Amino acid sequence: MTSPETSRTRAEREAMIEAATEALERGEVMLVPEDAARVLRCGERWLREGANHRGFPHHRFGKYLRFSLQDCREIREMNRERARPSELAKARRRQAAATRKSTGGDPVAAANVRLKPVA
């Protein structure tokens, strides 16, 4: 007995992947791991291991692993890395902090100090 996934032609699978990618923000489609990996542009093995061991959202129907588009969105967000400042930006901040310390503090705060007139 063959599953519907194995009886699809390559063109049908490509059309399904394209439609799923376009519908990522709209509807609910259930994808096999191979197709979900292509939508996410990652490896199928990484995706399966993530579902089995790292807590990636997924659906199980008996022994069959499936991913909805919402699952794909959540996996994408779970693995998003925040931008880190470059080494050049860190060096500039260190230099600015050292300059403020060596000049006796904030120049704006020093300009706001009022002196009493001499009598």
Brief sketch in words of this structure:
With about 120 residues, the chain is mainly α. It has helices at about 5, 10-20, 35-40, 45-55, 70-80, 85-100, 105-110; strands at about 30, 60, 65-70.
Characterise the protein shown here:
With 119 residues, the chain is mainly alpha-helical. It has helices at residues 4-7, 10-22, 33-40, 44-53, 69-78, 87-102, 107-111, and strands at residues 30-31, 59-61, 64-68. β2 and β3 (64-68) form a beta hairpin. The longest helix is centred in the C-terminal third of the chain and has 16 residues, at 87-102. It is elongated.
List keywords for this structure.
119 residues; mainly alpha; three-stranded antiparallel sheet; 3 strands; 8% strand; elongated
Helix and strand run: HHEHHEEHHH
Given the helix and strand composition, which structural class is it? Answer: mainly alpha
Query: How would you state the average pLDDT, rounded?
Result: 80
Q: Overall 3D geometry?
A: elongated
Q: Please compute the radius of gyration using only Cα atoms.
A: 28 Å
Instruction: Give the beta-strand count.
Output: 3
What fraction of residues sit in β-strands?
A: 5-15%
Number of helices: 7
Which regions are unreliable across 5 or more consecutive residues at pLDDT < 50?
A: none
Biggest sheet character: 3 strands, antiparallel
Determine the fraction of residues in helical runs and give it as a percent range.
Answer: 55-70%
Q: Major sheet: order of its strands?
A: 1-3-2
Instruction: Calculate the terminal CA-CA distance, rounded to whole Å.
Output: 105 Å
